[in-house]
């Protein structure tokens, strides 16, 4: 960046005044032609909807009648609606389970795999594969594995002496843990790769020096690996948090938000109100809440990250 | 602890944990070759008493699997092609051409990556509804072909290509489009492959997009088809697993062929 600015400054100083405006105009034109094909689609179908969503949240509108300005009525209705609060609590529950478990599992596997073992590539492939498997297949298989009476998971639990294993997706208390378990299993490979990339940037000399000083394996992990991975952890945390608050497919296919409303999450409420019921304004108001939560959590993490850097 | 002991311990730990991670797949594969009443046998039988390969032929008559697979393939290929094409083209503009407003525009791209899709899916749906595109493949193509993520990933890669190369080409009289096509594209093959694979897999596996936009059974993708099969015949355990295996198979093949590009793509997008 700095190099570019200097170059630009030099060009400004040396170029004859008459030529410069023409050159700039022509490169603007060229630049835009490159961006335009993508930008047209991006603007109409992403940028405009993002902005429209905010406006919609202040309107009362279904797909038939004409829109009516209602101010904060949608938000008012939302805070008096119990389904909204249940979904918000469930989303938070999911995030609180999913984020730390995935992070720890991903980091653990990455550290284990970051050594010169013979079968490293096989393990990496095996662990990454769940991430690119379709959610429908994942959900279907997990639902069967977790089947209360004859499912393999409960068979195993009974075999090791747990007489009354949980009913998993059929129980209001265990449905969310079941969803979290399946989601950790699915996501850990992706974050493991991010961590592996991070681990490869740590200089080996650091570990050698620590070993000479007599640091144990655990001490080396705690005092070298963890601090060196801080930027990666920061990124992983943000990505995990954002994706947790957006969770939809897995819940939709595994439990459809049930039993009862035990696993109902915010994005399902947005989907049901907006697309199924056609209450565009109300559903957009809930999206705004989701957006603000994601933004706030991200900003807090940015703050914490910056403070720990100082 | 000696080095050998540690090494063995690491191997054992990894093997154990990888097995745990792979168990669902093993179970899926083994169940797909069983009879329905054998799937939940107690104790679990990992190897079917008899291999029912006919599950893999019978399923084609049970659900319009061919239609679903064809729709998924069509959408995945079209969307991947458009996304790689427009994404790499736009990324050139953002990475290699300097013009006023460029950085502000790029910021808009980045900012939307952080906005959860649910926050704007309703306005998107309204636009598609007004355009009369709900329940068409075109709606999904338009929604997914112009991703901000693709532009971001390609731009990050282009930034690592030294500017001197394009400068030299410019002096030789090549136009900007020529530089993109003849110099930058050939140099960015790994990034193109990463983006293509990630997009293909995401589109193939996408559930929510088709779920919202496609109501007509003839237009359904494999994910919707599989899901509805589960809903309709939830006691046909073996057949459901057969369908799941068939839906995962293309991804497995693509993954094994392009493994290193997946890793590269994730690492590139993750490291900024």
UniProtKB/TrEMBL annotation, chain A:
TM ranges: 29-59, 92-113, 125-146, 166-185, 280-300
SUPFAM superfamilies in the cross-refs: MetI-like
Membrane topology reported for the UniProt record: Multi-pass membrane protein
GO cellular component: plasma membrane
Gene3D superfamilies in UniProt: MetI-like (1.10.3720.10)
Keyword match Membrane: yes
Domain ABC transmembrane type-1: 88-301
GO BP terms, alphabetized: transmembrane transport
Xref: InterPro entries: ABC_transporter_permease, MetI-like, MetI-like_sf
Domain of life (superkingdom): Bacteria
UniProt keywords, alphabetically: Cell membrane, Membrane, Sugar transport, Transmembrane, Transmembrane helix, Transport
UniProt-annotated location(s): Cell membrane
Pfam families the UniProt entry points to: BPD_transp_1
PANTHER family reported in the protein's UniProt record: ABC TRANSPORTER PERMEASE PROTEIN (PTHR30193), INNER MEMBRANE ABC TRANSPORTER PERMEASE PROTEIN YCJO (PTHR30193:SF37)
Family: Belongs to the binding-protein-dependent transport system permease family.
Protein name as it appears in the record: Multiple sugar transport system permease protein/alpha-1,4-digalacturonate transport system permease protein
Source organism phylogeny: Bacteria, Bacillati, Actinomycetota, Actinomycetes, Propionibacteriales
UniProtKB/TrEMBL annotation, chain B:
CDD domains listed in its UniProt record: TM_PBP2 (cd06261)
One GO CC term on file: plasma membrane
Record's subcellular location: Cell membrane
Membrane topology term: Multi-pass membrane protein
BP terms from Gene Ontology: transmembrane transport
SUPFAM superfamilies the UniProt entry points to: MetI-like
Domain ABC transmembrane type-1: 69-258
Superkingdom per UniProt: Bacteria
Primary localization: membrane
Transmembrane stretches, start-end: 9-29, 73-94, 106-126, 138-158, 179-201, 237-257
Keywords per UniProt: Cell membrane, Membrane, Sugar transport, Transmembrane, Transmembrane helix, Transport
InterPro entries the UniProt entry points to: MetI-like, MetI-like_sf
Family label: Belongs to the binding-protein-dependent transport system permease family.
Protein name according to UniProt: Multiple sugar transport system permease protein
Species: Kribbella shirazensis
């Amino acid at each position: 960046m700095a190099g570019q600015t200097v170059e630009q400054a030099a060009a400004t100083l040396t170029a004859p005044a008459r030529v410069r405006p023409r050159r700039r105009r022509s490169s603007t034109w060229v630049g835009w032609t490159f961006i335009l094909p993508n930008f047209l689609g991006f603007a109409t179908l992403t940028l405009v909807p993002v902005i429209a969503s905010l406006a919609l949240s202040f309107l009362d509108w279904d797909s038939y009648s004409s829109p009516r300005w209602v101010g904060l009525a949608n938000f008012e209705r939302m805070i008096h609606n119990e389904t909204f609060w249940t979904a918000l609590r469930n989303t938070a529950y999911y995030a609180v389970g999913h984020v730390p478990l995935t992070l720890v599992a991903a980091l653990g596997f990455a550290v284990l795999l970051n050594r010169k073992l013979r079968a490293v590539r096989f393990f990496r492939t095996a662990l990454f594969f769940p991430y690119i498997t379709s959610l429908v297949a994942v959900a279907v298989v997990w639902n069967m594995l977790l089947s209360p009476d004859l499912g393999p998971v409960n068979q195993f639990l009974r075999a090791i002496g747990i007489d009354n294993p949980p009913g998993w997706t059929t129980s209001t208390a265990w449905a969310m843990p079941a969803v979290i378990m399946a989601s950790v299993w699915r996501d850990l490979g992706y974050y493991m790769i991010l961590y592996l990339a991070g681990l490869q940037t740590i200089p080996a000399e650091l570990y050698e020096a620590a070993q000479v000083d007599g640091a144990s394996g655990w001490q080396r992990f705690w005092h070298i690996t963890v601090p060196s991975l801080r930027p990666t952890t920061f990124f992983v945390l943000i990505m995990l948090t954002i994706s947790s608050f957006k969770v939809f497919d897995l819940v939709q296919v595994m439990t459809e938000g049930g039993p009862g409303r035990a696993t109902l999450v915010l994005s399902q409420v947005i989907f049901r109100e907006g697309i199924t019921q056609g209450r565009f304004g109300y559903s957009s108001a809930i999206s705004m809440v989701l957006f603000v939560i994601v933004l706030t959590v991200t900003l807090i993490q940015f703050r914490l990250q910056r403070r720990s850097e100082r | 602890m000696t080095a050998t002991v540690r090494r063995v311990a690491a191997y054992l730990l990894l093997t154990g944990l990888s097995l745990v991670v792979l168990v669902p797949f093993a179970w899926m594969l083994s169940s797909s070759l069983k009879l329905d009443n054998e799937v939940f046998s107690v104790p679990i039988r990992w190897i079917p008493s008899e291999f029912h390969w006919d599950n893999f032929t019978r399923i084609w008559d049970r659900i319009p699997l061919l239609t679903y697979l064809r729709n998924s393939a069509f959408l995945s290929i079209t969307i991947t092609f458009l996304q790689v094409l427009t994404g790499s083209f736009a990324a050139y503009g953002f990475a290699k051409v300097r013009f006023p407003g460029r950085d502000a525009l790029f910021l808009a791209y980045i900012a939307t990556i952080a906005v959860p899709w649910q926050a704007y899916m309703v306005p998107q749906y309204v636009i598609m509804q007004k355009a009369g595109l709900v329940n068409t493949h075109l709606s999904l193509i338009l929604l997914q072909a112009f991703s901000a993520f693709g532009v971001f990933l390609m731009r990050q890669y282009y930034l690592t290509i030294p500017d001197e190369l394009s400068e030299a080409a410019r002096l030789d009289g090549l136009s900007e489009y020529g530089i993109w096509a003849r110099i930058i594209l050939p140099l960015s093959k790994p990034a193109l492959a990463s983006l293509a694979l990630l997009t293909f897999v995401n589109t193939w596996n996408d559930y929510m997009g088709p779920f919202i936009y496609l109501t007509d059974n003839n237009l359904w993708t494999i994910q919707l088809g599989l899901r509805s099969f589960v809903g309709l015949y939830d006691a046909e355990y073996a057949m459901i697993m057969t369908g799941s295996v068939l839906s995962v198979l293309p991804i497995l093949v693509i993954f094994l062929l392009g493994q290193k590009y997946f890793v590269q793509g994730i690492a590139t997008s993750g490291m900024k």
